[in-house]
Amino acid sequence: MDTEYYVTKKTSCKNCGGAGLIQAPIWMVYWEWYYTNNDKHPTFKSQQKWWAAQGFSDDAEIPEDQITCPDCDGEGQITTTVTLQDALCDLGETLDILVGHPH
């Protein structure tokens, strides 16, 4: 066949669950420290000390807790191009149900 048809496929981003944002990696490390800090509630001073040890000496420098998802660039979905044949195969069961032709 000389002609191929393509369609756009959009799926929810698995990395961010469709939100477009993920927790910043430094915050994952922070929360791990926070919850394993000798079963105590860390004090403000101990939290400041932890952030300073990570290179953030001022409260204003502490990064946001969420960042744009790198997998979907903050869109919440992944857009790909697939052949029409592949799309129809993926949709086969749905199409059969819609037109009344069960498997």
Topology:
Blueprint: E1 6-12, E2 21-23, H1 25-35, H2 44-53, E3 66-68, E4 77-83, H3 84-99
Antiparallel strand pairs: 1-4, 2-3
Tell me what portion of residues adopts beta-strand conformation.
15-25%
Q: Distance N terminus to C terminus?
A: 28 Å
Helix share bin: 25-40%
Tally of separate helices: 3
Secondary-structure element series: EEHHEEH
Low confidence ranges: none
Shape: elongated
Kindly name the structural category.
Answer: alpha+beta
Description:
Strands 1-4 form a two-stranded antiparallel sheet. Strands 2-3 form a two-stranded antiparallel sheet. The chain is 36% helix and 19% strand. The chain is built from 3 helices and 4 strands; from the N terminus they run E-E-H-H-E-E-H. The chain is an alpha+beta fold and 103 residues long. The model has no long low-confidence stretch (mean pLDDT 87).
